[in-house]
Structure formats: structure tokens, C-alpha cells
Design a protein that fits this description.
Blueprint lengths: L2 H17 L4 H17 L4 H16 L9 H17 L13 E6 L6 H14 L4 E5 L5 H13 L3 E3 L7 H14 L4 E5 L8 H14 L3 E7 L4 H14 L3 E5 L8 H10 L3 E5 L7 E3 L2 H8 L5 H11 L2 H13 L4 H13 L3 H6 L13 H16 L3 H5 L6 H11 L3 H22 L12
Helix pairs in contact: 1-2, 1-4, 2-3, 3-4, 4-11, 5-6, 7-8, 9-10, 14-16, 16-18, 18-19
Bound molecules: guanosine-5'-triphosphate and magnesium ion.
């Protein structure tokens, strides 16, 4: 999502880095580019103005660190100010007595109904048994949509059709939650194309009946600055406790994410990154800032890895690393595991040093590549897989024929494997590998 912004900012910092010493004019020129990049990313005008003013003051001020070059210092200030702009990490408030009532509000199509089961899964992870509440009675299909999602994810749904008034449904659900020891109530509400009085009155009535500990605005990140003004309107009428930005996996320019907190004062609590129930990420300002500046986001990557990598597999790999017995079969297994973590471009965006080229990776191409690699490795004998060094010219021709590939492709695979082996040896000796060298 922040691809263009990342590219532009990187260009600016590279330019500054080539200058060595920075004059006031150099800093101003650099900041002008930063300003343009942010405006082009659709960040709120006033937010950009304040942001660059703060960076300028600090960059030209007394904050001199000997260990950093002037360009690195400017970059560090931009990084810190980006984090400040995005606010502090914010979690769901669990301080009160359960059931914790989470009320989802937002315009039509912003993603409320999709987000409800995502939040239910999140609450379940927090140890709170969730109950979803179908309180959007304007569209008959909305009740059904939530029921289907609930069924798929094995989540309880409270619904009363479409003839009962939503605040009444909310009150009934709350009573049921108390009686049946549900720890969390997640209320889906109706959306409209625009903020209007009828909608706001209904939400106010719902708020009175269910006393939510959280009123979360679900906003579509693709709508840019509109999302920001919508958030302000909702906040004035119903009082928001948090924001959830959806469709962050799309190609929105990111301005909404960068402006929302600063304009409304309401913290961003989650990011929606896909249509599936698992596609909800906590919001960590420092990680996002690092990602925007092309510094990667190793922490989120590590978390993702921990979620999908099989513990046992990971231990086995570690053993192989230590004993340097990493084979082509292991190589293929690793590629499969990495693939499970999500789209390749998304993964690369989180790796420092690779984020700049993440956008150039095509999913289809990596999938095809993986199929080819599997075919080639399957066409090898066991001995060849264990020790690829024995693969000479005639063996290469046989493998290519057997897998429907070409000898140069077999060569490429063997080359890649050698690179990975080399990297692995570096890692096992405690050195950080030069990941970029794999792509040269
Ligand atoms: N790619 C992507 N799509 C999303 C995300 N969140 C929601 N969507 C899609 O956005 C569309 C609208 O989502 P809904 O959850 O129905 O929106 P809503 O706010 O409940 O809409 P109304 O009930 O009409 O007010 C659906 O097609 C969702 O699959 C997300 O994070 N990423
Ligand atoms: Mg809905």
C-alpha cells in the first residue's frame, strides 16, 4: 500500500546521503520532496504541514549524534515523527467486567460485517468467549451474511431476523451474554452511504442499551481523505474509542492511515488486510513507520512465521543449520513453508533491504517458479538431492527432460541453492546474511 511513498522517500534520503554535510538548504530541499511525497500519498494537508515543520526544526536543531551521518539523522527524525504521527499502539479495552461490548459502526461497505468475526477470533485469543450480534436489520442479507460467517468459523451469532429494532436486539443479546457467560459481544450495525441523522439516532439508541466498552469505527482505507472526515463526524456524534482501517491490502495510497489518528485524536486499533477471518493485524506505529521508510518490518514477519511454521520443522531446520546438512529437499520444504506465510510481495515488504523491490514480485510468477522447482527436485535421485555437487552435464540434461524444464533452469536452481546454503552457514555462525546478493 505504501509502495510509492516508500520509493519516493528512499529516493530523497539517497540524495541526501550523497551530499555528506547538509546545509539548511539541503534539508529544506529534502523536506520539500518529503512534503510532496506525503501529499501525493493523500495525507491530510494540515498534517503534512505540521509534520514537515516538526522534522525541520529537529533536523536543523541541536540534535547531533556523532555516530550518524547527517542524512541518517534526517531519516531518524522522519522515522520518529512518523511514529508520533501514528500514535501509540492501542489495544481493546479489557479493563471492565465482561461481557466486553464492542460496537462496530461505519459507512456502507466499509467492512463492518467482515470485521466482526475477525474481532471475535481476536477476542477468543484473549480468552473471551465471543457472541456476534446481527443488528443490521436494514438489509435482510446482512443478518444472513453474519450467520454464514459465524457458522464457518464456529462462532455463536445472536440474530432475531429483521423485524425487531436493532437496539432491542442489542439489549437481548447483552442479556443472553450475561446469562450464558459470553465474555465478548461484537455488535454489527447498519451502514449508510453518508452520515445521516437517522443512522446516528439509531447508533445512539444502541449505545444506551448495550453500554459498549468500545465503539470502533470501521473505515475503508481506499477512500482516503473521505474516511478521515467520516471518522470526525462519527466521533462527534457517538464518541469513538478506536479505528479499524480495512482494505489495507489494496492499492490505496495510505493517506487515511497516516492522517486519521492525528486529525481525529482517536487511536487506530487494527488493520484489515484481507477478506478472510484471519486477516486482521494489530496496529503498531513503529512497525508501520519502518515499513513506510523501507526499513522492513521484521517483527511482524517473525510473528507470521511463528504462526505458520511448524515448531517441529523449525527445530529440525535449526539442527540442519548447525550440522550444515541442509539439502535440496530441505530447500523445497522451506520454500513451501515461506509460501504459507502469505503473498511473496507482502513478505518481502517486511524484510529490511528487500522492501524496495517487493512490488516487482508477481505472485503468479513465484507460484509457477515453485511448481518448476518442485518438478526439478522430484526428477533428481536421492543421492543428487543430498549432494547436488555430483550433478554434472548429463545428469542436468536428464533432470531437465524429466521435469519439462531446461538445463539453464536447472543451473539456476542449483545456483540459488548454493546461495541459500551459503547464507545458512553465515546465519549459523551468527552473521547477518546479505540477502540482496541472492537477487543479483
Ligand atoms: N480486500 C479486503 N476486502 C475487505 C476487507 N474488509 C472488507 N472487505 C470487503 O469489503 C466488502 C464489504 O464488506 P462488508 O463487511 O460487507 O461491509 P459492511 O460495512 O458490513 O457493509 P454494509 O453492511 O453494507 O454497511 C466485502 O466484499 C468484503 O469482503 C479487507 O480488509 N480487505
Ligand atoms: Mg454489513
Amino acid at each position: 500500500m505504501f509502495e510509492t511513498l516508500t520509493e519516493k522517500l528512499q529516493g530523497t534520503f539517497d540524495k541526501l546521503a550523497r551530499k555528506g554535510r547538509l546545509s539548511e538548504k539541503d534539508v529544506d530541499d529534502g523536506l520539500r520532496e518529503v512534503r510532496i511525497a506525503l501529499l501525493e500519498a493523500d495525507v491530510n494537508f494540515k498534517v503534512v504541514k505540521d509534520f514537515t515543520a516538526r522534522v525541520r526544526e529537529r533536523a536543523l536543531g541541536a540534535e547531533v549524534t556523532r555516530s550518524l551521518t547527517p542524512a541518517q539523522q534526517v531519516r531518524k527524525v522522519v522515522h520518529e515523527e512518523l511514529i508520533a504521527l501514528l500514535g501509540k499502539p492501542a489495544k481493546i479495552d479489557l479493563s471492565g467486567q465482561p461481557p466486553h461490548v464492542l460496537m462496530l459502526v461505519g459507512l456502507q461497505g466499509s467492512g463492518k460485517t467482515t470485521t466482526a468475526p475477525k474481532l471475535a477470533l481476536h477476542m477468543r485469543k484473549q480468552g473471551q468467549r465471543p457472541l456476534l450480534v446481527a443488528a443490521d436489520t436494514r438489509r435482510p442479507a446482512a443478518v444472513q451474511q453474519l450467520e454464514v460467517l459465524g457458522q464457518e468459523m464456529d462462532l455463536a451469532v445472536h440474530s432475531e431476523g429483521t423485524s425487531v429494532a436493532p437496539p432491542e436486539i442489542g439489549a437481548n443479546a447483552l442479556r443472553r451474554a450475561k446469562e450464558s457467560a459470553y465474555g465478548a459481544l461484537i455488535v454489527d450495525t447498519q451502514g449508510r452511504l453518508h452520515v445521516d441523522d437517522e443512522l446516528m439516532s439509531e447508533l445512539e439508541a444502541m449505545k444506551k442499551r448495550v453500554s459498549p466498552s468500545e465503539i470502533l469505527l470501521v473505515a475503508d482505507a481506499m477512500t482516503g481523505q473521505d474516511a478521515v472526515s467520516v471518522a470526525q463526524e462519527f466521533h462527534e456524534r457517538v464518541g469513538l474509542t478506536g479505528l479499524i482501517l480495512t482494505k489495507m491490502d489494496g492499492d490505496a495510497r495510505g493517506g487515511a492511515a497516516l492522517s486519521m489518528r492525528s486529525v481525529t485524536g482517536v487511536p487506530i486499533k487494527f488493520l484489515g488486510v484481507g477478506e478472510k477471518p484471519g486477516d486482521l493485524e494489530g496496529f503498531y506505529p513503529d512497525r508501520l513507520a519502518s515499513r513506510i521508510l523501507g526499513m522492513g518490518d521484521p517483527l511482524t514477519l517473525l510473528e507470521k512465521a511463528q504462526e505458520v511454521f511448524d515448531q517441529e520443522q523449525a527445530l529440525k531446520m535449526e539442527e540442519k543449520l548447525r550440522t550444515a546438512s541442509f539439502t535440496l529437499e530441505d530447500f523445497m520444504e522451506q520454500m513451501r513453508q515461506v509460501k504459507k506465510m502469505g503473498p511473496m510481495s507482502q513478505i518481502m515488504g517486511m524484510i529490511p533491504g528487500l522492501s524496495a523491490i517487493a512490488g516487482e514480485v508477481s505472485e503468479e510468477a513465484t507460484d509457477k517458479e515453485l511448481v518448476k522447482i518442485e518438478a526439478m527436485i522430484s526428477s533428481m535421485t536421492r543421492a543428487e538431492r543430498q549432494n547436488p555437487r555430483i550433478i554434472g552435464g548429463s545428469r542436468k540434461r536428464r533432470i531437465a527432460r524429466g521435469s519439462g524444464t531446461t538445463v539453464p533452469e536447472v543451473n539456476q536452481l542449483l545456483g540459488q541453492f548454493r546461495q541459500v546454503q551459503k547464507m545458512m552457514r553465515q546465519v549459523s555462525k551468527g552473521r547477518i546474511p546479505d540477502v540482496l546478493s541472492m537477487f543479483r
